[in-house]
Structures are given as C-alpha cells and as structure tokens.
Design a protein that fits this description.
mainly alpha, 236 residues
C-alpha cells in the first residue's frame, strides 16, 4: 500500500469536492492537506533523487563516500575493537567453547608429513633394515592410515584447554591483535569499495521507505488540520 499516493489522492478529492460544492471549509482542508503531503513527498524524494534547480537534492547518493566511511568507522570502532576481539577469544578459551579447527584440519594435506617420516627412517639406523624388506615402497600402505591418525590426533590437540589457552595468549599479543584489525579493516574496505551511489541509495531507501511514507501521511493530516482551523478562524 502506497501511503503517499493514498494521502495525495484523498487531499485532491477533498479539494475538488470543496471547490465544486462551494464548501470553503472542505476546500481549505483539502488544499492545505495537499500542500503538506506534496511538500513532504518532495522532501522525501529529494533525499534520494537529484531534482534540477533544487540545491541539496539527491543528498544520499551525493554523499555516498561519507556513507561508506561512516559504515567502516562504525564496524571498526564498535564491533572489531581490541576489547571485543579479546572478549571473543576469552569466550573461546575453554574446551567447551574451543574454536572448531576440524574443517581446516580435514583440508590440510598431511602427505608431506608421512614423506618426512619415511625419509627420517631411511636416514636412520633402520635404513638398512628397511632396504632389505623393499625400501620406502614397503611403507606406502601405511600412508592413508598414518594421515587419518594424524588428523585425529591434531583434532584432539586443538580441542584441549592447553592448546586454546596458548592460542589465545598468542592472538592477544599487541602486534597480532593489530594485524587482525588491519586485515578486518581491509576486508571491510574492499567490500565497501564495491558499493555504488545507486546501491547505497537502494540500501537506505529499502531500510526507511515505510517510515518515510508516514511523513507524507502526517504532512497531509496536519496540513488539513491547519487548513480547517484557518477556515474556521476566517468564518468567525
């Protein structure tokens, strides 16, 4: 339901009825309501669209750079502060709230670890014995079981209180904390740079469109009240 359109139609109807029926009170209420509604509608329209000859119109698209800066400052100063990062890390320090490294561990290729183990065995005193039973090729059937066991072991370690405490202590170092904030800032900056004036206009318009419609409604209501009072004052 378009509140602005309905308000303007009602105001126009009152104006026409008052004019053709020669009812000065109705006409005055209608014309004042129409002027209030149209004025507020124009003001809302000027927030988002540039109107030729009207200075200050299209203010939101025109100031979209300031809009982006404001968003970035809000994110960095209210959400990604050192205190909030520290609070997040503190809340994930225990095993029950440990950071879940399982998805990362599953993607890690541990084949080099097995290759290094085989190399260590070849270069050790067991190298000659290994050569007698087929060399390093004899150990290849152990590759997949070794990798699976390693991932399980690393997963168990990452869930321990000691590991998460050490991780938190390292992440809370000033240099690390600053680096994290810089990376977050870069991510936000890159995303905001993808915004265009038109997209900023749409974002703001979608957020407040419904509420701005009430400005037109109340402009028409109060305009009509003022018109009615003006007409009654002149009558008496």
């Amino acid at each position: 339901m378009n509140k602005s359109l309905i308000t303007n139609v009602i105001a126009i109807a009152l104006t026409l009825v008052g004019y053709f029926a020669e009812q000065s009170l109705v006409f005055t209420i209608g014309i004042f309501a129409l002027s209030g509604a149209v004025t507020n509608w124009l003001a809302v329209h000027m927030l988002f669209e540039k109107v030729p000859g009207l200075y200050g119109s299209g203010v939101i698209p025109a100031r979209f750079d300031d809009f982006k800066i404001a968003i970035r400052n809000l994110m960095m100063e209210q959400f990604f502060t050192e205190e909030n990062i520290d609070r997040f890390l503190s809340g994930n320090a225990s095993a029950s709230n440990a950071i879940d490294f399982a998805p990362i561990i599953d993607k890690v290729d541990l084949s080099p670890a097995f290759d290094n183990l085989v190399e260590v065995i070849e270069n050790s005193s067991f190298g000659a014995m290994l050569a007698m039973v087929g060399g390093k090729e004899a150990l290849q059937p152990m590759r997949e079981p070794f990798i699976e066991k390693m991932k399980l072991a690393i997963g168990d370690i990452s869930k321990s209180d000691d590991f998460n405490q050490v991780l938190r202590n390292e992440l809370e170092q000033p240099s690390v904390m600053a680096g994290m904030r810089d990376k977050v800032s870069d991510i936000i900056e890159k995303r905001l740079n993808e915004l265009t004036p038109e997209l900023v206009k749409e974002i703001v318009q979608n957020m407040i469109r419904e509420h701005l419609g009430w400005l037109v409604v109340w402009g028409g209501v109060f305009g009509g009240i003022i018109g009615g009072l003006a007409s009654l004052t002149n009558t008496f």
